[in-house]
Here is the input.
Amino acid sequence: MIENHLLQNYRSAPVTIVRGEGCYLFDDSGTRYLDMIGGITVCVLGHAHPEIADAIAQQARTLVQASNLFGHEPARSLANELARRSGFDRVFFCNSGAEANEAAIKLARKFAYRNGETRRRTILSCTGSFHGRTLGALAATANEKYQEGFDPLPGGFRYTRFNDVDALKKAIDDSVAAFIVEPVQGESGIIPAKVEFLKAARELCTQHGALLIFDEVQCGMGRIGPLFAFRHFDVRPDVVTIAKALANGLPIGAMLLTERVAIGLQPGDHGTTFGGSPVPCAAGMAHLRIRDAIGLERHVVEMSDVLFRELRAIADEFPDLFGEPRGLGLLAGLPVKEPHDAAALVTFARENSRVLLNKAGNNTLRFGPPLIVTEEQLSVAMSALRAAAQSLVVSVA
Here is the structure.
């Protein structure tokens, strides 16, 4: 008899989480784990934040769903606040990062169509990218590991090398409707874009009439410091997609865009049943209020210095095991050198130190803790990593 009817499409650890509090998770046996994953960069204010919970409960008692046949205050308030903070003019809400990227892809093509440029259909993205698992977002994800077995994918997508300005110059032409790029590639192992690459992208898109889309699903919402990652690079795109951390755990995604390109999607062109529902929007508003009150952006900068200092020290201590740490803010990657396996470090830290780490990309440890993480908690996590590294070195020897 099948005891667990969930589809087995995740490599889940043998742990059943029942409760969260701040930077900690608790399993069904009462064991406490220090969480350095944060729901994959989702729970920026930690787990079960009481003010977020209160906002959710209050909204749930008032209005849960009305559909987009009518307006409602939570969606309007959150859209207005995101527009004020970002400088963009329009906001489209959906349920996830993949949906936000799907919306951006459709917007780019319909924008060209409405401007009479019917041959401008190509969506350009980068090698090593990850934009989601729906078919359109997957077609923009230049990674064979994710695409294998899903052929035929939608057409009209091309790829260029990440951080290669010369290749980008050759790739962007008048057939390109949009160039979509992550300011920090997450799934490939935490690889930041070079400032000159993003600046060149802005210039080339403007020159050729293509839209520039920043996928900030993983690196946005203060993960690398500023609320929006484009501010760190001082490069302004035409469209930004966000999700993950926006409602601190509830499903919501958003596409932010300028008034100029907003004409691309008109009534009937695109929609979603649950996008911008009252409860996640209320959670999103609470998240933005709380981050202001606690000075979260300054805290991220301070804790980032601690995290990267510790990671560099560990890399120097175990030069045969680790490469140079990379990333920005509280989104860090520590490459693990072959023949060692990052998964072994993840397992050891969980089972022996009760610290939750994560493997991403090509054998890389990914660190994306709640942004409220303390220096003491980072120290505990780094001690767990040292213990795991020492165990792996000894076992290989």
About this structure: The mean pLDDT is 96. The chain has 14 helices and 17 strands. The chain has two domains: 17-48+295-396, 50-293. The two ends are 43 Å apart (CA to CA).
